[in-house]
Write a structure and sequence with these properties.
This protein is an alpha+beta fold and about 250 residues long. The protein is about 45% helix and about 25% strand. The chain has nine helices and ten strands. The two termini are about 15 Å apart.
Length: about 250
């Protein structure tokens, strides 16, 4: 597992329990609310909101929940004011960790993240301490069993994508953030369906982690994922398959 993202985590835990499902719904509702607050409630003119709604539908969130989240964001319903804050730190093996949160209480959030990191062999860093090790990229995941690799590569590059790689049964189409939504639209017009699409922090280089260090790192990443205010967690770890199997 080269790097760590919410999509990678969801794929690894298909048999999520009710608590995990509840956490996912909470994260998606917060993202929809903030997206609507920042860019308006019409997904046709708000790409961030459109992406959040697509993710919510993929998670089988009821339409009423989505509508209420949008109305809270636009002020039509009362709701909590969420603030976007990122945190940076280190995990076992010196792995860089980048954490995106949406919170209504920054003091509570930083205290919880610091506690999770320290309890699991990590540490909280200063702003900018690890962000330079990542690039912001659009990533579109497509079922590799459904599409011809060469045809998909040509379609993606013609649409403005940077690259297409195969990983764990999926094609991963990578784009610059500015062309992310345009590439999605172009692929959809050709009838190509997505497993997932997200704006992610992609590591420029990875650090190989194995054995006990990998197991401790996965425990740390899972704990961060479970934190209520955490939206996405990224690392520059390249975790060996044996460690993944051990915690599956």
């Amino acid at each position: 597992m080269a790097g760590h993202s919410k999509w990678a985590q969801i794929k690894r835990k298909k048999a999520a329990n009710d608590a995990k499902r509840g956490k996912l719904f909470t994260s998606l509702i917060r993202e929809i609310t903030v997206a609507a607050r920042e860019g308006g409630g019409d997904p046709a003119y708000n790409p961030r909101l459109r992406l959040a709604i697509d993710a919510a539908k993929d998670a089988n969130m009821p339409a009423d929940n989505i509508d209420r989240a949008i109305k809270r964001g636009t002020g039509e319903l009362e709701g909590v004011e969420y603030e976007e804050i990122t945190y940076e730190g280190y995990g076992p093996g010196g792995v860089a960790i980048y954490i995106e949160t949406l919170t209504d209480n920054a003091n509570r959030t930083v205290a919880e993240i610091r506690h999770i990191l320290s309890r699991n062999g990590g540490s909280l860093g200063t702003s900018g301490s690890v962000a330079w090790q990542f690039d912001r990229k659009g990533q579109i995941y497509i079922d590799a069993s459904r599409y011809d690799e060469e045809a998909l590569l040509m379609a993606a590059l013609e649409a403005g994508a940077e690259d297409v790689q195969q990983d764990d049964g999926s094609y991963v189409v990578t784009t610059e953030p500015a062309s992310f939504h345009a590439v999605q639209s172009a692929l959809r017009e050709q009838g190509i369906e997505f497993q997932q699409a997200e704006l992610a922090m992609v590591p420029k280089a990875t650090i190989e982690v194995s054995g006990d260090e990998a197991a401790r790192l996965l425990k740390l990443l899972d704990a961060l994922d479970d934190a209520d205010d955490v939206q996405k967690v990224y690392s520059n770890a390249d975790i060996d398959e044996a460690a993944l199997d051990a915690v599956s």
